[in-house]
Amino acid sequence: QVQLVESGGGSVQAGGSLRLSCAAFGSDYSFYRMAWFRQAPGKEREAVACIIDGGSENYADSVKGRFTISQDKGKNTVYLQMNNLTPEDTAMYYCAATWSSAGTCLLQLVYGYWGQGTQVTVSS
Description:
single chain, 7-stranded mixed β-sheet, 4-stranded antiparallel β-sheet, 51% strand
């Protein structure tokens, strides 16, 4: 059974950085697309970034220029480097993965595998 396990969350002050990791276990094949989503208290889950086949990257407008997604296909792991964090980035961050190439990369519905989430808290 495939499992996604996130790590790297924590508490930082505004302007700080964090690096999230998400490792996939239970699969002999690397995922074609992996992504990060987040959900703040009282808000709907939203897309943050996604990466296709370890190369093409897509970002939500709110994180462009501050966050970078990357994928190590050999380790079946996706990373999210988050710089210049603001309190508005406070949320539970989830990674997601799929072997499918159908649908928009930042669309939640295309992903069949999800992690349990890692909390990111940014204080002002």
